[in-house]
Amino acid sequence: MEQNLLLTYLLFTPIVGSVLVLFFKKEQIKIVRWFGLFISLVAFIISLLVYFNFDSTKSEFQFIHQVIWISSLNVSYNVGVDGISLLLVLLTTFLTPLTFLSTWNSIEKNIKMFTFSMLFLEAGMLGVFISLDIFLFYIFWEAMLIPMYFIIGIWGGEKRIYASIKFFIYTMVGSLLMLVAIIWLAVYASDITGKFTTNLLELYKVGPTIPHQIQEWMFGAFFLSFAIKVPLFPLHTWLPDAHVEAPTAGSVILAGVLLKMGTYGILRYCLPLFPQSAINFAPLISVLAIIGIIYGALVSMVQTDMKKLVAYSSVSHLGFVVLGTFAMTVEAVQGAVIQMINHGLSTGALFLLVGMIYERTHRRDIAYYGGIARIVPLYSVALMIASLSSVGLPGLNGFIGEFLILLGTFKSPVLNSWWYTAFAATGVIFAAVYLLWMYQRVVFGEVKNPELQKQLTDLTTREYIVLIPIFIFIVWIGIYPGTFLDLTDLSTKSILQQVSTFTFDLFK
């Protein structure tokens, strides 16, 4: 297998798989389920081949495969990965087969279309992370909207139509502004270089030379689109609705991967293309991130629905990622990247666990539970590990990301104030409050509801298979984060070097 084609094979595996699903009969439910799982596992194996052939001693993009697509506009199919995008590709291909397994019994209607939507969604997410052509990136960014809209709207809860339309409108508004900025950027590049281009690596040379006033407008358009996807306060209001109404698989992919497309976009596009604007807006954006950290945590504390609590916790955790990105130190950006992975694992696990108990009782309200440790001890242990991971307990993955972000923010020459770190650190305390309080009310004490004795059964073999791989990585990152930090080290420095070249030396 030619190495440069690995990413193309990876991208086309779920695309071809989703098309083939359409040829199955509706009645072939078991075959469709197994086929969807098989295709997602093939994609995971290909992503592992990319990982094992990746050279972490190089900062440039690898496995580049470029084919001219629209020659008159100099638009090409151009894909490649660096350490940052590789980690997110691995997260995507790792979580997708687990979500198929998690919905084995809970999704009962129109299995064929559900499998099609999940595979198509996987292809869209992978395309976003590996695109090196800004036009191609936009195509995948928009394509991902369609399957997610249907996953929420068809297989979601009672208010699924409202939640899916709200998700679609929010994301579409930001996307259209980004499209205008993409055209503007490409046209500006043609004025400077003499040729219209959407090649990201060429635009990296052009973007920072754009006059400051124009650069700010372009930065704003890109950033707004990414901030909606993160979602950054106050653009977060679509998220709780989408999370709560989505089926378990939708919630896991939404929290685990889709939100990271926003933070990845900021890191890949906003910082290197518009470095001066990024530095100018960094204090304001960091304040919004800190408001999101505290607000998300405080709102989580008062939730009565377990799923809504986990949804609002995402607003808080992603605030840390945005803060780390705009602190623009090596430690903070490294922390932001590893925290993207951490959030995908720990919040994904929490959504899976809430989904597992909901399958048994069809209730998510915290008050309904109590004392379940006596009935389902193994489930209670799994919920404890996922909760402590999300809190940021030393020895588990969440601690590494939050520590690096707080350390890097404290040292940041862009923010240049310890107040950012002090206020952000309160989010760690609040996280412990809302998650451990939820855990105490659900798991400990007397069994309040006698119905629970009949409804609850402990984890099944299938549920073990879903959870154990996630917990392995939760502990692995917590104990030995070097495996993952070494992968992103040079890519992180490369982005910061791009920023510092046109502003000031961030490494002093």
Number of strands: 2
Output the strand order for the largest sheet: 1-2
Gross morphology is globular
How many alpha or pi helices? 20
Number of domains: 2
Please bin the fraction of helical residues: over 70%
Summarize the helix and strand pattern as letters. HHEEHHHHHHHHHHHHHHHHHH
Residues in β-strands, percent: under 5%
Low-confidence stretches: 504-508
- The end-to-end span amounts to 44 Å
Largest sheet: 2 strands, antiparallel
Mean pLDDT: 85
Structural class: mainly alpha
Task: Determine Rg (CA atoms, Å).
Answer: 22 Å
SSE inventory with pairings:
Layout: H1 6-21, H2 29-53, E1 62-70, E2 75-81, H3 83-102, H4 111-130, H5 134-143, H6 145-155, H7 160-193, H8 200-206, H9 212-229, H10 238-245, H11 248-273, H12 275-301, H13 306-327, H14 330-361, H15 377-391, H16 397-411, H17 419-443, H18 451-455, H19 461-479, H20 482-501
Antiparallel strand pairs: 1-2
Task: Give a description of the structure.
- The protein has 508 residues and is mostly helical.
- It folds into two domains: 1-273, no CATH class; 284-508, no CATH class.
- The chain is built from 20 helices and two strands.
- Strands 1-2 form a two-stranded antiparallel sheet.
- A hairpin with a 4-residue loop joins β1 and β2 (75-81).
- α14 (330-361) crosses α20 and α15 (377-391) runs antiparallel to α17 (419-443).
- The longest helix is centred in the middle third of the chain and has 34 residues, at 160-193.
- The chain is globular and about 75 Å long.
- Mean pLDDT is 85; it is low at 504-508.
